[in-house]
Amino acid sequence: MAGLRSVLTGRSVAGQVFFLLLVMVLLLVVAAVVALVLQAQRDSTQEARNRSLAVAETFANSPGIVEALESPDPTAVLQPRAEAARKASRVDFVVVMNTDGIRYTHPRPDRIGKQFVGTVAPALAGEPVVEEIDGTIGRLVQAVVPVEDPDGKVVGLVSAGITLENVGGAAEAQLPLVLGAAPAALALATGGAALISRRLRHQTHGLGPHEMTRMYEHHDAVLHAVREGVMILDGDGTLLLANDEARRLFSLPEDAEGRHVRDLGLDPATTELLSSGRTATDEVFPVGDRLLAVNQRPTDPAGRHRGSVTSVRDTTELRALSGRAEESRERLNMLYDAGVGIGTSLDVARTAQELSDLAVPRFADFVTVDLFESVLAGGQPDAAAALRRTARAGVDEDAPLYPRDHQIRFVESSPQGRSLATGRAVLEPRLDEAPGWQAQDKERSAQVVEYGVHSLIAVPLRAGSLVLGVVSFWRSRKPEPFDEEELALAEELVARAAVSIDNARRYTREHSMAVTLQRSLLPRTLPEQNALEIAYRYLPAQAGVGGDWFDVLPLSGARVALVVGDVVGHGLHAAATMGRLRTAVHNFSALDLPPGELLALLDELVGRIDQDEAQDEHVAPVIGATCLYVVYDPVSRRCSVARAGHPPPALARPDGGVEFPDVPAGPPLGLGGLPFESAELELPEGSRLVLYTDGLVEDREHDIDVGLERLREALAGAGGSPEETCRAVLDARRPGKAADDVALIVARTRALPADRIAEWPVPPDPAAVGELRAAVTRKLAEWGLDELTFGTELILSELVTNAMRHGGAPIQVRMLYERHLICEVYDSSSTAPHLRYATMTDEGGRGLFLVAQLAERWGTRYLPAGKVIWAEQNLPETPGTLS
């Protein structure tokens, strides 16, 4: 109670604050009541205007209003509707009138038929009008809007009105509540003010103004005793107050207070800061042999009273300690960044460059990385071999250091030479005083020193017992030389990078081995044939060797088989499996099987391979291999296609059209149990058949449909030759490193000219053989192949005779003049002849032996209805190419 009486007396600072707060709260309550009354009046008027206009416009645009006005008795129709609208919208009246202002409706029926009181001229002109008038029911707001027919003609008027008393009732109803709450708010404010005053009294210990003055004097004494300088200046830069610490730090004269800062003899930078009055936070200024941290703020942030207060502290020793801490933190950050930023790829050169880029300029001004040549290729380092500058980074590009890719042999006396020989880091603090370093290249060494490079650290790149190269750190801009602590940091940086570089070296070696294996399994040259003009590309994946492969296989009858395949996965296992499949296709193609049957045999082979390797848990199965097999016949210009889980081929026709033929999609190889269907295509001469693996049209970001459409666009805009087509297709691929390898074959079709084809039907009569020989002789003479007449007659005589004896009708003979002279005999039997060696007593059995001796090669090709026995003979001279 004594404390409360002390507060209420008003003698203390707390009492004065209490009464001031009480008056402020009372004024706020009065202002709130007045503002509520004024706002209620304003809101009432605006609400009345909005509501009356909205009701009038709604009723004027309601359905049937125009028809009601034009009816014989508008009042009978409109009066009930107007009253219903009035009650629903809570307005005082809804009046419908004609264009002369005569009422059709009114809440009081006795007013119907009388003249409307109000302004109607704007509404007759098509514009709504809202006005305030004093009516018989009080002060009201009414709106008058036009009623327009479909042609826009005003045919009537609608007015709606509401008294301000009705609208403002809600706000006025709240006024007693506000007035009732005001005493409660005043009571709460009084209690709050008492609590604040009590708290203030507790903090000021109940002191009055005089006591507070004495307390200020005490604080002023303390101000001069602290170890931080404090200065207060007015807006003109005049020093108003400076404590003892500020006088000591700035060496201020005794009469400094009251003088302008420019007259105090301070250094220009400090004078400029103090006189400007700008905000400053921990800005460091050298003053004599001290480093002073200066903070400055305006005395009044609102700017009503110009002036500033400045605090100053001596940070000379703290600066040195914090500098060493900052250096340690930066070194830790750099080592962390080295752990996450070096070795992002398995590329030796890129990893070396990442080390150089990390250290410049955070640690050194220039960094060079020199590796042995064999390391770049993935091999073991050779200490006797030369090094190659693999990476270089620096603050300037024109430094006279050896450029990138320069081959270097370091002399034994150089820091790099000693580092490579001993396997330890070498510090050369003063390059201008290092004769061993200068002996490397005296002319260039002089240029380096003249450029400003003055200190060097050489660290060997060690991975276990192997020294892969040397890293050199050069300093030019910082005047201090490298020290022992920085030598340790350089060793740590290089040690972390050496692990990544050695991993990249090992990967490069393994990748090179796998690529070598894969390329050895792919065709090195294409076989000679005239049916197709072929160009091809193979692009290995950047991430690892894949199992994509392709081949071109000449078949009998001037036909050519094209094949592309893909073994899912990467690495040596995929490459080795690819080689096995390619060999199998070579062997199966010798059987002259249709594409579907060949894929069935290949599928069975893959299944057997999986069964053989199922016992080895370290060997992955081959399931996922795909294949596309195409056989093209230049005689009929027909193409037979089958695929096993492989993307369909693309066909670019001579007229520029591009399509993807509908080839039945068989399952991937190795699943077994499902047949492979073939599709037959007839290709115009000059068509381009494009076979590819999925790496060309698929990636992780896009669906295969996007890749196929991109391939279609590339083929549509490519040149006519296969080489141009290959370039266009590969150029259209998305840039960047390929995640999968790509095999691509583009084959432009040719047709065997009709004058190089001869066919004869042979009746099953031995006498017909003589006629056939005569026809063959004439045709060979026409082709200029008389030298082959004897052998050809013997071959065809034997083959036709065998067909008559062991085959079935009909019998057909065909000769093709291509790169070889091809003789074919067709019969309807599926029985194949067999070559045997006849004994001395045998009367027959020597015919096929003679055929084998006279022909370069011969064989049997089975057809759906019969077989073809064929034989090829070398031409006496190189034939011309097919047109």
Helix percent band: 40-55%
**Number of helical segments with 4 or more residues:** 24
The total beta strand count reads 31
Low-pLDDT runs of 5+ residues are 837-845, 878-883
Helix/sheet category: alpha+beta
Strand adjacency order, main sheet: 12-11-10-15-14-13
Describe what this molecule looks like in 3D.
This protein is an alpha+beta fold and 883 residues long. Helices cover 40% and strands 24% of the residues. The protein contains 24 helices and 31 strands. The longest helix has 48 residues, at 13-60.
SSE topology:
Blueprint lengths: L1 H8 L3 H48 L4 H5 L4 H16 L3 E5 L23 H4 L4 E7 L2 E11 L5 E10 H4 L1 H36 L4 H15 L5 E6 L4 E4 L1 H7 L17 H9 L3 E8 L2 E9 L8 E8 L1 H26 L6 H12 L6 E7 H4 L10 E8 L12 E2 L6 H8 L3 E3 L6 H4 L3 H10 L3 E9 L2 E10 L8 H38 L10 E8 L6 E9 L5 E11 L1 H18 L5 H19 L12 E8 L4 E7 L5 E3 L5 E2 L5 E2 L12 E4 L5 E5 L11 H13 L5 H10 L10 E8 L7 E6 L5 H16 L5 H18 L4 E7 L2 E8 L19 H8 L2 E7 L2 E9 L9
